[in-house]
Structures are given as structure tokens and as C-alpha cells.
Amino acid sequence: MLTPVNMDFIGRLRANDQSAWFEVWETFGPVVRSQLSKWGKGRIGSQTVQDLSQETLAALSESIERFDPSRGARFSTWLLAIAKHVLGDELDRRHAQKRGGNKRAAELDESWMASSTDPGVDAQYEAGVFRAKVEAAIRVVEKETDFSDFAIFSMRVLEGKPGKEVAEALGISEPTVSRRLAKVRDVLRERLVDVIRMYSFTEDEKDEAARNGLLATPKQERTAADDALFDEAICEIYHRQMDLRRQDQAARLR
Amino acid sequence: MAAVEILLVVLAGIVGLVLVVVLLTSVLVPLFKGIGLLIRHVFAFIGGMVMDSARFVGSVVLAVLYVPLVLANLVIGRFSASGHYGRALQHELSSAGLCLYRVALSHPLRLVGLHGLVEGVERRLPEVMANAPTREAPGGRGGKFEGYSIVGSLAAGGSGAKLYIAQPSAAKFAAFQRDGIDHVGQVVIKTFSLKDGSSLPQIVRESRSLDAAKKLGLILDHELTADRFYYVMRYVPGEPLGMMTKRLHASSGPGGLSPVAMHSGLGYVSDLVSTLSVYHRGGLWHKDVKPDNVIVDASGRAHLVDFGLVSSLRSAMTLTTHGTEYFRDPEMVRLALKGVKVHEVDGTRFDIYGAGAVLFSLIEDSFPAHGGLSQVTKRCPEAVKWIIRRAMADYDKRYESAAAMLADLDVVRMAPDPFAVRPIDLPSMKVGAAAGAGPGTPPPIPTFAAAVGALGASIGGAIKGAMDTAAARASANGPNIRVTHWWTGRAEVVPPVDVRMGATPVPLAPQQPRRSAAEQLASARARLDGAKTRLEKRRGNWRFCGTSQKPINGGVGVAVAIMVACLVAANTVHVKKSRQAARQIAVSTPAASVGVSRGGATVVSVATDESAAFESNDHNTQAWPRVDARVLVINDVLQPWSGTSDTTLRGVSKGLSRVGITALGNALPADEGDTLEMSGDDSDVDLIASARLALGQRPADSPDAPKVMQAWLAAHDDDVDSVVWIASQGKNQPLKVQVFGGEAMGEKGLDRLRASVNQAVEKAAK
Description:
The complex is a heterodimer. Chain A is an all-alpha fold. Chain A has helices spanning about 5-15, 20-40, 45-50, 55-60, 75-100, 110-115, 125-145, 145-160, 165-170, 175-200, 205, 210, 225-254.
């Protein structure tokens, strides 16, 4: 069952809000391209995968009218199905052109929109989608928090610098570093819940945060160990996501 | 004994077993792996040979089939279809050629392990060929360029234009010198021809940016005809920054830039940011900042080139997504997709993002694939990391101006040990010393020679003076956009955020709402009607005197003539005396000094008879006679305005408001009761830039400023009648308000304007 928030998001996509499509492609583009490259090994060149852009996806906005989320489709599966569909369409078009232009492009099979059956995703792809959601949450936090607070978070958690070093670099005390870090961490916990909810269609997807050690423990029950665990998980996810983006970049520039 | 033998046997067994395991893991496993790889390699070779042979045959068969189709269509006159089949034939032939190359060379060479040789031919050779310069001279279709002789060419960029290096003729050199452009060597001609495949939108886009770039002296010459458009700019010989970066990293090792290379690299980025600062001060933004658009010359100076996307910061056009991925702010794309107009955002911040991305790529020798979250992994001073982070931060949190970024960069670059500089040591982090952001404090002037580079010192000097303090104001004029509901994309306009440690946000002064075109038109018509009515009234009065129904005898006529002559004589004497007094007296109010300039004479800012007459009822706008003039307000005072500055500016606003002035620009605060009409047109930015350029480095109160401005007003009398120039004289100093009037305004109108402004400023100060 869709929540009002993600219904709103789907509404934006249905309304052909190009910025919403841009968001989707900016957030999930690398993981989808990675999966498509994996699938299309030998058949789909990196150039073709690279040609999949948010504009191409946005062109499909009319098809989304037929999307029925109540049939239990996962967001990750739905996302990949769109990309697969776009890719198939693109390949058909190219083949049709190559044949001399006398034959129309193959008819689009849009049955996947209704049920979203078996695009054959694996656990690695699911993990990639989840990491992309966490990255999106970090970006939201970057927008919402003070620049210096987020810089402290970035130096302390994402770069793994000791609190003392951060304090010296910024000319503030260590307790101030801890206080500001805690502020950003709290915002991130909240935004993680929002973002994961927005990009989730099933209950199973919504539970991913808990499964990955990012469960939002009530504030009064939180211990230093909880915070350390949270930071560690965020750091690992961020670095894995960064690796993925580097690979994606290398493939696109190849 | 038997036990010992058994023990020995067991030991020998164990040793044998270990040896077998070692043999298996160290010899046999790699051996089998190698055999596996070899088999795979051979199979890949066989597979490749078979596939490519089959493809070759297929391509040849198809090519043979296409030939009659091409010829048949040609014969029956279906030229388009013939062309279509011709292209298909070309595709098949190139495919067949490629397959033949693979079968004959690529696969056999790969089989014997010569991957390096094959890669060189297959990857680097096409890359080099793609980047090769185009033909040396334009073909017949491109035509010739009058006054230029082509001496070379450059690789075409992504815009579809052709680039030629040319030598201007003696006549062109003379023309440049007449326009005040010196030190011109070879030039680059960028040409778009519809016949050569350029599209009309490209030509329109480039020609639009041309107007903007010309104001900064970046464009030397241009021509637009029915089918071709070209413009001429200075030629900067050198290498792109991307290539220089690779060279610096190659000489430094895999860990990152060496201290010497770091210093050179920071110098390039400093030059880049300095140039951006000049652009922004001129009311322009580059929009395509990337390493390939930065050329490093032989002396080690970096120059920003390619003006294809340069546009005015106050343009009314919708923001577009043009730019280069990884160096283009994703926020700009989001806003463009939402249909936001250029003047609704602060374009300078997108250039600053690009500069941050260039700095990142210099340090990492890679692209910032993670946007603002990209992490520097190579050796880098912490302060440089901070600068990158701050430049690529979220839209409303990054540097407010290029000058502020430049100040930070220069601190690191000039430091004996850049690694010892902490982020807290950067100027932007110090409270009260925000580079270019403090109230009333002009931003540091960039190293201009470096900034403008090949533009030449004379033009550069003119621009520097003209654009003083404009960058921060341009930055302040553009509102900050904050996304309030990120899942719906709703946004709101917020005051700028001061990200200095411990600083509190400073709210922007209220802006005049922009009026619609219809409202502006209605307002202009109303003013025109008013002027017509007054003229009719005056004519009516004159007619009454001249054509009275009562007969006027000769004596009355003579008496009237004598009286008029006396009045004229008295007035002449009075004006002469006033001017003499004006040359001798100078009065400054506590908050501001007002100078009124006309025809080379600086008139003092004392209250005149007229202002005194209206002083008692200055709040009553009806009491002040209306002045029908278009006044261009140039406000050099940086926002946020201090209390005294704000008071003075409100005084100027009131002074203009109560005589019914239509002010051009959008640079003055106004009280609720004031009725100052601000046009808010985008063309105002052009006018302001033009006026600044005319005045050059001179301050607005310099002795020859009136003469210069009068000449400028004469040249722009279709648009402007008067200029009110408000300049800061330094922190805690009163503002300087200069009023320049053109011939068209009339003596009386200027006196009224002067009186009104003067009195209002004095009143506000009290």
C-alpha cells in the first residue's frame, strides 16, 4: 500500500514533472545502469546503457498511468522494469532504423507495468538500491543542515577523522564537534525514515533500514554505542556508493 | 625401533602430504588456471574470428544489395531515398572494413599478447583523430572573413561551430585601436554557418551571448548575415587544464600532487576564479566552467575561454540545462526543469560550483562523480578540501561570490606550507572579515592581469574600475531558493545564509516587486498622457495670452516685452552667480554628500531656493513639481546596507519618488508611503554595465566624471535622461550621491531633481 508521501511522488512522475524524473535518475541511475550492464553482458554495449538518460525515462511518463502499486511490486523492481523497458524500446528503435526505416519499431510490451513480474533482480541490486536511498537521505540532510555542521559530519563520519583533528581544523572544542555531529545525526535518522518510505512500495522495503542497522531508536534510549554503529553503517554505505559511482563514471567515459 | 620406524613413516607421510598440498596450490592450481585462461583466450580468438568473418560476409552481402537500391532511386529521381540507402551502404562498408581489420590484425595480435599495440590503434588513434584540427581554411561555402587571413584551425567544440586562427589585417588593427583595444595578436574566429550544418537555435544562442560578452571586451568583432554568423576573440595559445592536470599528476606520482605541482595548480584555479569574478562583476556568468575551457599559456597563466553559453545574470530567459556533466550543478538542472528564469536565481553560484569541480578534478585527476559529496582521496591540504566542499555545497550555502572563494584560495596558495593552513584560517571563516560580504566593504580586487589574461591591460583596467563591487551586489540581488518540501519540489525565497562559524544570518533588504510588462506599459502610457496634458495646458495658456478675445494694444505689447526682457536678464545674472558659488562651496551632510554635475561643472549640494520652498512640506508629494525624466540609479553600496547607508538610500528613494521619477534599475529601498516607480527591466543591467564601462576606473566624483557621463547620456538619450550614482566611500563614511544630467533633461528639471534628492537625503540624515 502506498503512503500519501510516495503517492505524491508518483503523482509528480505522472504529471511529467521532469525534475522528479531527474531526481529518480540522479539517485538511482548508477545502480540501474550497473544492473543493466550486468544483464546485457555481451548484448548491450556500455554506449547503449550510457544513452539511457533521465530524459529517456521521462518520455515514458505516460506509461506510468498504467502502474498499479497495489499488486505488490517493489520499488526497486519497478525501477528496473522501467529501465529495462526503455532499453528494450531503444534497442528496437535502433534495429528498426538499421533495417532501413521501412519497418516500425517493435510494439512496446507494457504488461510489466501492471504486475511488475520477475525482472530477475539479485540481492546485490537490492542492496545497491538501498544504498542509493541512504545517499539520497544524506543529500537531503546536506540541504537542510547548516554548512559547517554538515562539514563536521562529513569530516567525522564520512572521512573518519578523529574528533580532535576536526576540532583543531575548525578552531572549535571537541564537545562542540560532538554536539553538532549529534544534531546532524538526528536529522539524518529522521530523513532516512522519510526517504526510505518515499522510495518504498512494500512493507518489506520499509524494513530495510532496520535490517541494515539504521533503525531509528527512540532518542532517550540511544547509547553512544548506537551512535557509533549508526555512523559506521552510514560510512560503509557511503563508501560503497562512492565506489559504484566511480565505476559508473569510468564506464560512461570509456 | 619399530615405533621409531612407524613415527618416521608417519612423518614422511605428513611431509609428503604437505608437499603435495604445496605443489597443488603453488604449481598445479596456477598451472591449470593458466591453461584455463589460455583455452579461454584461444576460444575468444576463435569466437572473434568466426563472428567477425560472419559479420564481414553479412555486411558485404548487404552492401551488394544496397548498391542497386541506391542507383535505382537515383535514376527515378528519389534523391532522398537514394541518400538514405547510400548512408546504409556506407555503414555496411565501414562495418565490413572494421571486421576485416579485426580478422586480419586485431584478433591475431591479441592472441599473441600484443594488446598494447592493438589498444593504441583502436582507442588512442581515433581519439587523436577526433581531436585533430579541422581544415586550415574555410571552404567555398563558409566564405572569407573580411580583414582576416586564416593561418590555422582548432578542433571544433561541441556546439558545431568551426574555429579558425587568423591574423587581422592592418585596417582591422587600426579599427581595434580606434575602439581602445590594444595588444591584439592573432585572433580566433568562431563561425556558424547554416550551410555547414549549424542550426538556427545555435546561432541565436551564440549571438545572444555575444552582446553580453562584448560589454566586457571579450569579443573583438562580429558579423551576422542571412546564412552565417561569426565572432572574433583573442587567441590564447596553450594547453587545456585537463591536459596540464594529467601532466602535473604524472610528475608527482600516484599519491597526489607534489607541493610544487600543488602550487602551480592552485595558481591556475586562482586565475580561473579571478576571471569569473570579473565576469560576475560585469553582470554575466560563464555557465560552462570546466577544465577543457581553461587554457594555460606558456607563462603559466590560466585563461577562461569559450563564450558560447555566457549570459546575463538578469536575463529574462528560462534557465537551460546546458553545461557539462560533473561540472554543472545538479541544482541548476533541477531549477531549469522547474522552468525557473535566469534572473530568479543567482547564476554566479553555478559558476562557483563549476570552479569547485575544476579544483576537485585538479587535485584528484578525476571527475567529481558524487557531486558535492565527492571525496578527495589524494594528498591535499585540509584547507583546499574545505574550499572544494564550500564551493560545491548546496546552492544557498556555497560561497556568495567568486571574490570570497578567491580570497580563500589565495591564502592557501601564498602560504609557505599549504598543508599547515587550517580551514579556520581562511578569510571566509573569520567573523567580521567575510571577503566581499561585509557591509560597505568592497570585495578584494582580483589580480586583474591574471583575470583578464590576454584581454590586455587597457581594457582590463577599464573593466576593473567599472565593475567595482558589482559582484557582491549581483549576488545579493539574486534571491536564494530553498526547497521547503523536497518530496513535492516546493521552494521558497530565503535570505542569504552566512555560513561563517557562529555568524547569524543577515536578512536582505526588501526588494521592489517586479511589475508585469502590461503594468509597465500602462504606467508609461499614463506618463505620456500626463506630459501631453501639461503641454496642451501650457500651449493653451500661451494661446490665451496671444490670441485673447480682448484686443491687446501696442503699448501693452511693448510693456510685456520689456518685462520679459528684464526677467530674462535677472535670471541670467542669478544663474551665473549660483554657478560661481557652486565652484567654491562644498557641503557634506552627516550621512551623505550630494553632488550635482552638469556640463563639466560640479554644483554644490546645498539646499536651493526651490528645495527650501518645499522643505516645509516634503511629505506632501503634490507640493513638489513633477520631473518627467528617466533616471538610471547605479548603487555601488553592497548589501546588507548599514543603518546610515539604508537611511541615505531611502532618502534618495524619497527624493526621486516625490517628483514622480521613473527610476531604472532595482537598487533602492523604499518606505511604504513612497511611490517610486522602478522599471526592473533586464535592459537596465546592460545600461548600468555600459555606464560603468564608460566611466572606467574613475570614481564617480572625479573631476572628469561629469564630462564622461554627459557624453554617455548624450549617446543614450533614447533610454536615460539622468544618472544618480551612489558610491560608498569606505566603512563608516557617508555615501557619495552624484547626480548627472543630460541635455535632454533641461536646466530646470535637473535643478528640481537635485533639490528634491538633496533635501530628502538631508532630511533623512537628520
